[in-house]
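Regression test attached.
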Amino acid sequence: MSHHIPEVVIWCLAIALTAVAVLLMRQRTITTGVRRRIDQLEESVRARDEEIRHLVGVRLPAVADAAGPSVPLPGPLDDRLTGTDFAHSLQSVMDYFTQAVDRAQARADQSAKAALKASMRALQGLAHEQQLAISDMQDRHDNPDVLRDLLEIDHANSQFGRRAQAIAVLCGSWPGRQRVASPLTDVVRGATSRIRDYRRVRVHSQIDLAVVSRAVEPVVLAVAELLDNAARHSQPNTTVEVSLQPVHNGASIVIDDAGVGMDNQEIQQAVALLSGRRPVDVSRLGDPPQFGFPVIGVLAARYGFSVSVDTRSPYGGVRAVVFLPSSLLTQLEIDGPGTTPLTGHPRGTAKGPRTSARTHTPRPAERIHPPQPPEHPAAHPGPDAPATPGAGTVVGSTSGGLPKRRRRQPGAAHPRPAAPLPAETPTERTAEENARRMGAFARGTRAGRVGHHPPPDGRIPGPPPGPAPGRPPGHAPAEDEGNPHA
Amino acid sequence: MTPPAPRHERGLVRPYVVTDGRSHPTRNTFDLVTLVMAHGDRPLGGLSPEKRRLMELCLGGALSVAEIAGHLMLPVSVVKVLLGDLVDSGHLTTRAPIPSAELPEAQILQEVLDGLRARL
């Protein structure tokens, strides 16, 4: 019996060992599972930590710094969290924060704009007032030294006015002044007047197009900003070349500088600003604030012209092109106060009937200015203008009601009508005119012989009353022919 | 009748751009009544718009400095700078106004008239 005991023990041991082995195996499986689960959970917690850190460190600052609603914001870091409650909570934090930031920004922007606008309008008014005062002084003082000082003050004042105007426009104000339609050349030179280095700007090609009244000031302001940019970003010894080109459905102002140019990123930024689509935030113009492109963008979008700066100038710098569509252009206004000094030109009508008979080429003044602008009827003595006493010297009246002096002709100071007359224009007179002149001569000599009082039939000695229509009364024909330039 | 244009309309192109920053005329021979005459044979190309307008004005006959300033709506002192340039370039010549001494006096004319009347 005793030799059976070890066998039993062995069996028992074997069973026990098997059981232990099975248990161990199971334990091991469980442990592995638990470990894996712990790892997963740890990973998950770490991911959430990461996500929170990402939210605080990246996403929320991005919202706060975003330049506008169109800028894409960074998303969550880890895709595994998508759809979980945690992700939803994070998103609601983001949304809430975004709204709060937007509201705060809008409020800040609005109050900044309102404050800036009001103060800039006031400054603009002062600049304008000062400009009028300076203009008055320029008229009043005839001393070149005084003029030099006044020109300097004027120049500084113009730049000051432009700055105030630009900021006011950026804050939603109107450009300020209503002007008459002005030639494109004057518009560009007006813009030149408002920058520091105006002497470096060269305006080539003059074209006979004018900018309509409502667009004058905005275009001046936009071109001034472009010229200022061009002049500031190029060497002081280089010039800024401006050329004006009529194009298919409008006109272009091309501004070339010989400066450093812009890199791709700057160009992209400029294009975005110039499009005018992005709302401008006055509190984010940089330090020092860059007003130029945002102002141009605002004006271009509001008035319907376009500006591009993405071409390279042949001189190495930037080529800025302002395109003005036909709707902003008009033919050169001939009666604008700034464009025509010649509306009261007495010879325009005085010579009316004669011009066709002569073979001289029309003077530039006549080509540009049609002889009878209907807006100034008073400036031209019409055919039915009364023959006033002393009509030989007074040929109409100014818009202020003052009589107009007939212009002194070279060689007409001592009128000797007899000598050049027959030789110069023997064939131009009609028979009636000859007869009338001879009659006048005869009446004159008769009156002289009879005595120095008028004859009883009431006719006055001298030229007959009622001169030919369209011809100024009195000595006009003699003076016309005494003029070598006519 | 057109009302006179508002004052600020002339303020688009400032005088320092017109004179290119200069304030002293190249010659000091102009006063308000100096007469200016243009030479029509000089080319107008290359002149600034104001000088061109000035030439167009003067091609119509002699004008005084004051009249030119009025037509161009520029200060007289600025016009003098432009005139100095144009005289230098040969576009213009100036003539001093006719002194009153050269004109026959009214008294003499009256005497002549009386004499003629007495004879006839």
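Expected vs. actual: identical. The first helix of chain B runs from residue 15 to 18.
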